[in-house]
Write a structure and sequence with these properties.
The complex is a heterodimer of chains A (109) and B (112).
Chain A lengths: L3 E4 L2 E5 L4 E7 L3 E9 L5 E6 L3 E5 L2 E6 L4 E6 L8 E9 L6 E2 L3 E6 L1
Parallel strand pairs in A: 2-11
Antiparallel strand pairs in A: 1-3, 3-8, 4-5, 4-9, 6-7, 7-8, 9-10, 9-11
Chain B lengths: L4 E3 L2 E4 L5 E6 L6 E7 L6 E7 L2 E5 L6 E5 L5 E5 L8 E9 L2 E6 L3 E5 L1
Parallel strand pairs in B: 2-11
Antiparallel strand pairs in B: 1-3, 3-8, 4-5, 4-9, 5-6, 7-8, 9-10, 9-11
Classes of the chains: A mainly beta (109), B mainly beta (112).
Chain lengths: 109, 112
């Protein structure tokens, strides 16, 4: 099946800093989603982005399917951005979503 | 617009027992998937139900089974519980097996 790798595994920022999270995948992509998991375990949808670029407030995402990666940008980070960020990819002829291991983000005030 | 709901929120069971978790999909969705998330890991796909049938299955033993009802809600059953089954169980829904998935708040299962 498709392999999904996220980097960095951990990220610590001061409030106001910018960051880039990366998701690499090993095969052609059908669907790709970015999620934020809050401390209570709820997965919150950030972007549905199998290709192209999208923006939502301080967050934006880009998927370059031909080069098999996606990036999540967080600008002017806030303490409420803390949590784990996952990308989930369906690809390689399968519609079974494969999650990466996540990036754990801590934003200090 | 009701989102995905799951019950119960928390559950404690003993090794060898059986457990049933429940999920109601987001309004307008007909496909339900179940995931297991161990501590510090990403969610792992268990199986997907569409039109009351299991359509796809991940690498989980037959102790894990499910059901989908005519109203699209779903149950996950786990028999002969092991300590390693302790995890957060997440349900997700989507429309016709494709497109964006939405997740419920999860059920945290502890096996002692």
């Amino acid at each position: 099946g498709i392999q999904v790798e996220q980097s960095p595994p951990d990220l610590i920022l001061q409030e106001g800093a910018n960051s880039t999270l990366r998701c690499n995948f090993s095969d052609s992509v059908n669907n790709l989603q970015w999620f934020h998991q809050n401390p209570w375990g709820q997965l919150i949808n950030l972007f549905y982005i199998p290709s192209g670029t999208k923006q939502n407030g301080r967050l934006s995402a880009t998927t370059v399917a031909t080069e098999r990666y996606s990036l999540l940008y967080i600008s002017s980070s806030q303490t409420t951005d803390s949590g784990v960020y996952f990308c989930a990819v369906e690809g390689g002829g399968s519609y079974i979503p494969t999650f990466g291991r996540g990036t754990s983000l801590i934003v200090h005030p | 617009d009701a989102g995905v709901t799951q019950s119960p929120t928390h559950l404690i069971k003993t090794r060898g027992q059986q457990v049933t978790l429940r999920c109601s999909p987001k309004s307008g969705h007909d496909t339900v998937s179940w995931y297991q998330q161990a501590l510090g890991q990403g969610p792992q796909f268990i199986f997907q139900y569409y039109e009351e049938e299991e359509r796809q299955r991940g690498n989980f033993p037959d102790r894990f089974s499910g059901h989908q009802f005519p109203n699209y809600s779903s149950e996950l059953n786990v028999n002969a519980l092991l300590l390693g089954d302790s995890a957060l169980y997440l349900c997700a829904s989507r429309r016709q097996g494709v497109g964006e998935q939405y997740f419920g708040p999860g059920t945290r299962l502890t096996v002692t």
